[in-house]
Amino acid sequence: MTSQAESERDESDAGLGALISERRRLIGLAYRLLGSLAEAEDAVQETYTRWYAMSRHEQDAIDSPGAWLTTVATRVCLDLLGSARVRRERYVGEWIPEPLPERTGWISGRPGTAAADPVDRITLDESVSMAFLVILESMSPAQRVALILHDVFAYSFAEIAEITGRTPAACRELASSARRRVRTSRPPEAPAAHQARLVREFKKAWEAQNIDALVGLLAPGATFTADGGGMVPAALHPIEGEGIARYLTDLAARASGGLMVLERTVNGRPGLVIEHEGVTVAVYAFDVADDRITRIWAVRNPDKLRPWTAG
Predict the structure, then answer these.
(1) Total Cβ atoms within 10 A of residue 276
(2) Alpha carbon of 55 to those of 15, 58, 73, 151, 192: distances in Å?
(3) Which tens digits make up the pLDDT trace of 136-157?
(4) Number of helical H runs and strand E runs in the chain
(5) Residue 116 — pLDDT band, cuts 50, 70, 90?
(6) What is this structure's pTM?
(7) What angle (nearest 5°) sits at the alpha carbon of residue 63, between those of residues 57 and 64?
(8) Which uninterrupted H or E stretch holds 178?
(9) Which are the contacts of 274, defined by CB distance < 8 A and separation ≥ 6?
(10) Are 219 and 187 in contact (CB under 8 A)?
């Protein structure tokens, strides 16, 4: 027969397993809210720290630990978003969300060079595409929370109201205004295969330093945004139109030897990774519409590229 002590231990192990299983979902939530994998992991760590700071009696009194963890993680993220806005006002150059690596190339499906797999904890879909994350950056923290919790994680507005301390009607309006911003900010997502073809042609034209071919791949109003964080050289302001082709061919002409441009999945979409002697020095994400590249985001800040090289 199973002793009472063994039964309690089994229950404790099961409870611990359930708590740990929430981590993947919490990381996914926090990343979408913060746009930074490092900050998301910190937010989730703080959430678990608060859980384990409670007594066993306090923990047992919570009907749904998963709901409690979600509530605390969201509130931690809201606090971080408030301080992040101040930090980003002092940021050198443009701030771009931290890109997520995957192990596979986007054409062949062969294993890529990024051995670390932090993205393993995040379901990749349109809600983590770089284009979507950039739009989220233009929203208020409350809009972002309402949209992500309702549209991505399927929380009811009554549940979101409990988490945020607002009324369900207010949360519904926040999500609605956030959706309108998404609709007006970008066209529907282009099929991945279509984007892959354009990005591959872009890679070939860039490596050949072919300005005319690059211009032909870019939409007339295309923009190029770089993020060096003041740590490495990068364009401090967005570049538009044909200036992108001139800027990139100049970069290629001045590049030192040993650089490799690799086809890699970036936030679930076809992108490019630039490596120097096995170290990732830039990650390029793209947005495509009407058979042209409309946006390019180049992340060069070394702090945001560590997951791409860590082994």
Answers:
(1) 14
(2) 15, 5, 19, 34, 49
(3) 999 999 999 999 999 999 999 9
(4) 12, 6
(5) very low
(6) 0.85
(7) 115
(8) helix 168-185
(9) 259, 260, 261, 262, 280, 281, 282, 283, 284
(10) no
